[in-house]
């Protein structure tokens, strides 16, 4: 995901006019640089290069700006839909990968406090995933638990990608495991001895998501391995 473009802060002469799109871009840039809680009228005005009092001519309250900015953010994240001809499992994986991209740029996105605008977006995503992936009401809680567990994995992977600078952070673990004493960590090496390598559900993040979906939402039909490989290639770019 491309980071938000920094708004111009140049001031010349009389107070400049700002558009709604410029306000949203400034809000996204502020949240990207300083976190969701940092968004305020003063911070927004500073990014726009205007006096915060002037900003009142354009903005009634910061909550409305936050809602609009988060709505713009959510347009980058596809959500599973039963009416979409693509397999639901593929749609769910693509949704999770888009959340991961967002989490890399906005580290607080998946950890929004309950009741906040960002938290409400997560709840809307959850409801839409339930509507798409549940065949009956008995599966509602199962899918909710599964979705939250998958989001937890997504958030952790995104954070490790941010901190390691590696698009596939599991490779750092695999390389570090190779340096461990084999006698002490023998179970970690057993798959390597038996198979010559780790399975794709270990080395490929997309295959790991697919494996967990099979465990947590087993009624979703499987998809072709070639499709999983193509999605993993996008993650690894």
Automatic annotation (TrEMBL):
Molecular function as annotated in GO: DNA binding
UniProt superkingdom: Bacteria
Portion annotated as DNA-binding: 40-59
Keywords, in A-Z order: DNA-binding
Pfam families the record matches: TetR_N (PF00440)
Transmembrane segments: none
Limits of the HTH tetR-type domain: 17-77
Coiled-coil boundaries: none
Gene3D superfamilies on file: Tetracycline Repressor, domain 2 (1.10.357.10)
UniProt-listed InterPro entries: Homeodomain-like_sf (IPR009057), HTH_TetR (IPR001647)
Name by which UniProt lists this protein: AcrR family transcriptional regulator
Organism phylogeny: Bacteria, Pseudomonadati, Pseudomonadota, Gammaproteobacteria, Cellvibrionales
């Amino acid at each position: 995901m491309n980071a938000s473009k920094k708004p111009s802060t140049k001031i010349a002469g009389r107070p400049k006019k700002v558009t709604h799109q410029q306000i949203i871009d400034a809000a996204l840039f502020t949240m990207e640089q300083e976190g969701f809680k940092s968004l305020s009228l003063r911070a927004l005005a500073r990014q726009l290069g205007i006096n915060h009092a002037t900003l009142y001519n354009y903005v009634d309250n910061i909550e409305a700006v936050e809602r609009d900015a988060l709505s713009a953010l959510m347009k980058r994240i596809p959500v599973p839909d039963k009416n979409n001809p693509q397999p639901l499992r593929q749609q769910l994986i693509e949704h999770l990968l888009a959340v991961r991209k967002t989490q890399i740029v906005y580290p607080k996105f998946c950890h929004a406090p309950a009741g906040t605008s960002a938290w409400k977006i997560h709840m809307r995503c959850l409801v839409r995933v339930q509507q798409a992936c549940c065949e009956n009401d008995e599966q509602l809680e199962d899918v909710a638990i599964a979705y939250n567990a998958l989001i937890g994995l997504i958030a952790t992977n995104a954070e490790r990608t941010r901190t390691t600078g590696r698009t596939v952070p599991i490779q750092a673990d695999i390389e570090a495991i190779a340096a461990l004493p084999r006698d002490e960590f023998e179970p970690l090496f057993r798959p390597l001895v038996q198979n010559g390598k780790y399975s794709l559900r270990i080395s490929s993040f997309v295959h790991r998501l697919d494996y967990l979906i099979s465990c947590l939402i087993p009624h979703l039909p499987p998809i072709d391995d070639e499709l999983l490989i193509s999605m993993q290639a996008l993650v690894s770019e």
